[in-house]
Amino acid sequence: MRYISDEDCDPEEQLDIVRNLKPHGKTSPFALLDELYLEILKRQRDQDFLKTFLALLVGRSSIDASNLHEDDATLMNVSEKNLHMKLRRMRSLLKFEPFIDVHHKSFLDFLQDPSRSGEYHVSRQGGQKRYLELIIDCVVPHISMVIEQPKGHGKCCSRPQFRSVIIEYPPKIVLPVEDWQETLQPLLDLQDKLLNTSKPQPCPVTQVMRELLLHLQILQRTSHLVAAIQAPYSNMKKTVTECNPTLVTENIPENDLDGCLSALLSCLQKTNSVLVVDTVMIECMSAVVAFDHTETAAKVQSVTDAQKLIDLIDLVNQ
């Protein structure tokens, strides 16, 4: 009835569509309903926008947090008014008051079942990943502005509700660590630039970036620990590189901190997800620790390199 009485469409035309629906041989009890859903979805003009919003809808509906709907327009990069305009032909499936949501959970069930929704399918994990991607798409321009104009971006008035999703550990977005790594890559690319920015003014959005990257670090450490526990003992005894330690350090003068540090970082970059200390690494570490630690710390140019060194120190001290 909502579909037929949609105020943006001709009721007779809508009724004709319902009468002409054919389930295409499906035996599912939802076959006719699914055909109606698909017909409504296919009639939306901006299909890319629609599919993105459906992913957002599935994502935020599967996250245990309140008021996430307040970010819908921001995450879709449109005004609240424009969001309603773009989705106005979805009134038979979505309610718009007090906020945009499904009339009935059955529509979410339809979207999450690939055999029913086809090209409009959004899994729970896929929805949460897309939701996280939209958060990153929202955060990156803000961080870029802070980097370019650290003193000119003014007082930030943004108070995104999505911060409640990641303010505590574990985050309420549940994804494999690989998805976190892939999705947060734009922030990883910006973190060193932000650290080198002269006293950027703190704001909720930059704090979101810090919290997201912290979650990634914790998830990666947890993942590596699990991998290390599960790895066969014989694999743990294997060296990470096939380098000869003499070849690594023999051409580096004893007073060349840059050379020694570069050799150590080079070894760390060759490691896989499970960090194993081998002879080469020990030789490089021995060369580096001979220098003043303050001078060594000053030579580390990126957060990534610093984290690798911290992980190595933690492993050696265990």
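Above is the first protein from milestone M3; the second protein from the same milestone is given next.
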Amino acid sequence: MDEHLQTIINLSAAKFRDLYAAAKSTREMLNNNNITMITLCDKCLHVLQLSLQCKHQKINQAAVDLLQILIRDERFMNKATTSESDIIMMSTLKSVNLLPVIKAPIQCRILTLIVEIMCTEERRITIETVMEALTLCMQTYGNAEERSVQLACRAAITQIFSSFCTLPQNNHCQEQIAIFMDATSLLNEVIKRVNATNPQSEQVIILLDAIYSILSSQPITVINHQPFVNAIWYIHALINA
């Protein structure tokens, strides 16, 4: 982390003063035991956001390297509480809000890291976080100049939605019901997004991927969960309208 922050400091010193100051301040905090995990993470993500704004290839690469180190650091993820983890993941998505307009190689790397942070059995993500990722991928897909980025967006949504809706191994009845309820709520949120999206828009592809991922990840026992079945019938009505 120190190495990547130093790289950003060196590259930004001459031209990007705000980024330089943010990276320098964050680097100085690394060995400060009085700084909370959330504060340090927030500082790193702020550096990432400023780095993407400057649209400097080498700075962008160093910033994504920083993000990779950050999400793989057990201090920020494995040891985080559920609420802290939710904050970190949502903040991460917010910090890369320029994803739709940056260069393709950086877009693909960030999408890969988003999948890595969101698709893990160790922590449960929220519907709000999943929908934030959906919005980001829709915007990026619609603005993509290269097919590789579009494919990366579709792959990211498929993995994120499938991971969210898949039952854990050796699940108990209560866990199964909870997953069914979450999957139903998520499906209804995606349906709302479908209704609000121009049917001629390319972004519909991402929404269809999301719906397919939700449906295909469910076991046959989901037919006993009536709210989910009702949502499926609503989709059927939309298709045949």
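Note on the second protein: The mean pLDDT is 91.
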